[in-house]
Amino acid sequence: MLGLSVTLAHYLVVSALIFGIGTVIALSKRNAVAVLMGVELMLNAVNLTLIAFSRFSSAFGQNGQPLSGHVFVVFVLTVAAAEAAVALAMAVLVYRQRETVDLDRINLLRG
Amino acid sequence: MSVLATALYLGPAALLYLGAGVVLLADLIHGRRAVTGLLTLVTLALAAVWAVLQIGGGAQGPILGGAIVVDSFSLYFTFLLTAVTAAVVVGTSEWAAKVEDRGEFYSLLLVSVGSMVLLVQSNDLITLFVALETTSLAQFILAGITRNERSSEAGLKYLLSGAVAAAVLLYGFAFLFGMAGTTSLPGIAEFVRHAGDGLRLPLILAFVFVAAGVGFKMAIFPFHAWVPDVYQGAPTPVGSYLSVASKAAGFAVVLRLFYTGLGGAGTPITHDWAMLFGVFAAASMLFGNVGALVQTNVKRILGYSSIAQAGNIAVGIAAVAAQGTVGPSGVLFFLGTYAATNLGAFLAVNAVSERLGSDEITSYAGLFKRAPMTAVVLSLCLASLTGLPPTAGFIAKVYIFNSAIQTGEVWLVGLVAIAVVNTAISAFYYLRWVRTMILDDPEDATPIETPGGAQGVLLLASAAVLFFGLWPAPLILLAQQAAAALLPA
């Protein structure tokens, strides 16, 4: 309509923003579950970056072969799911012992 | 290549995963009567023997489309990792017998070490990431395995920082893939060598993210915050495993990523990442040693000391401009001797704290009169961590600092000067601990008994520390051969 087209740079900027937001959440939130949500955002930003690079690569569409960036994303998704499962189990374990998942109050270890 | 031939190459990792399943199954069927510890040891021994046979008799080279490479570098680490894990299993069998989830402990240990073996063989970003995350996930659970408050706190903290580090690492990987158009490490190296000036900044950005992500595994400053907490909170056997095996795997990945993946010496960005690791090294040494000075809990002292030692090792990575394989082989040699040394220290601490129920340094007063052998081994290991002759730690430090000086670059010589000053600082807390054990009088003079398995491993560790201190040539030769596999032929 206005002659605009979505280029690789657009995807990269958006994913960099999401990655930044995720990092800030992961580092600033004091609730363990909120930290995990931040990490999830970071991982999805990575996925967006990978897919964008893969789709805009000059080799895309030749031989009808999917590119390794696409494959990489599938692995990242799988690993992220496994990680979330372990993390939530751990959070539940800690919650049962102390009735909180506030990282400021989980402070037996320090010095 | 046929499935059978591939299996021949992948033997050690496949065996370890298989063993993890068998251990879990045995635990399910026989419950607490199951011989899970023995099964674990047999699996580790078979994997180690397989690796030795591979070193001697071929079955080396890239497989699975280049995603995995079996070479003398990966076999060096395969042997080191399995041997270290076996030593942990033997040395802490008394502790493990009391753990409620013993089967799960051994099974997760095998999954973790199997993934590390896969990790050091990875030659592709995807394989590397999956192996790294598999080993990390198993380690997070291991840190929380005893399910008491301290242990689960250590597990949760380790997991949260590990998850952030993994995401940062991946972001770096995404940019490496985006620029090079391939996930294969040799392919990326090819791209980096011919990269123009316009790509230098994006490449620097990518490797900074990658270095931050793996810095977590190596436990170097500023990605170290989890180390003292996890070493203190996690069960000591898990702490000793993490401090030796996980660190070795972390440095193996860094060597593979930066020497193979980013092309090693002579690329447009070599100097930039060498500088980055130089800064990491100096900061880790300073922070680790100063942090350790004020600690009174021995596990936290070992935690901070392990950050400082990571700084020493990183000097070898920064010395990429040195001729031939001096830098990386220094890293490999240091990791080999550090494994024996730190394992000895951790297992001695484990044996003592099992009996005393305390990790405070004051409870080590007069240990020499209560448990002479343990005290002597611990003193020897601490002397080696300081870097005093005639221990292996001395040779390792001289070797790695020499590699930095050989480059002839002024900033690396300065880095070595910082490292030497730090060695002097570290002597304060290492030798203070030794003095407490030997010269101070115990409050309670009852002898402390060390279990047989732990005694054997302690003797073995101290024998290795002395042997490689007096006769380092064989290990240096092996390290040089292994490091040569990293460089492009």
Topology:
The complex is a heterodimer of chains A (111) and B (489).
Chain A: H1 8-28, H2 32-56, H3 68-98
Helix pairs in contact in A: 1-2, 2-3
Chain B: H1 3-9, H2 11-30, H3 36-57, E1 61-63, E2 68-70, H4 72-91, H5 93-98, H6 102-121, H7 125-143, H8 149-180, H9 185-193, H10 200-218, H11 226-233, H12 236-261, H13 270-293, H14 298-318, H15 326-356, H16 367-370, H17 372-386, H18 392-406, H19 410-438, H20 452-470, H21 473-484
Antiparallel strand pairs in B: 1-2
Helix pairs in contact in B: 2-3, 2-6, 3-4, 3-6, 4-6, 4-12, 4-15, 4-20, 4-21, 6-7, 6-12, 7-8, 7-12, 8-9, 8-10, 8-11, 9-12, 10-12, 10-13, 11-12, 11-14, 12-14, 12-15, 13-14, 13-19, 14-15, 14-18, 14-19, 15-17, 15-18, 15-20, 15-21, 17-19, 17-20, 18-20
Structure report:
The complex is a heterodimer of chains A (111) and B (489). Chain A has helices at 8-28, 32-56, 68-98. Chain A has 111 residues and is mostly helical. Chain A has a single domain (8-98), classed as Helix Hairpins. The radius of gyration of chain A is 19 Å and the shape is elongated. The model of chain A has no long low-confidence stretch (mean pLDDT 86). Chain B is mainly α and 489 residues long. Chain B has one domain (3-484). In chain B, 77% of the residues lie in helices and 1% in strands. Chain B has helices spanning 3-9, 11-30, 36-57, 72-91, 93-98, 102-121, 125-143, 149-180, 185-193, 200-218, 226-233, 236-261, 270-293, 298-318, 326-356, 367-370, 372-386, 392-406, 410-438, 452-470, 473-484, and strands at residues 61-63, 68-70. Chain B has a two-stranded antiparallel ribbon with strand order 1-2. The radius of gyration of chain B is 21 Å and the shape is globular. At the A-B interface, helix 1, helix 2 and helix 3 of A face helix 7, helix 8 and helix 11 of B.
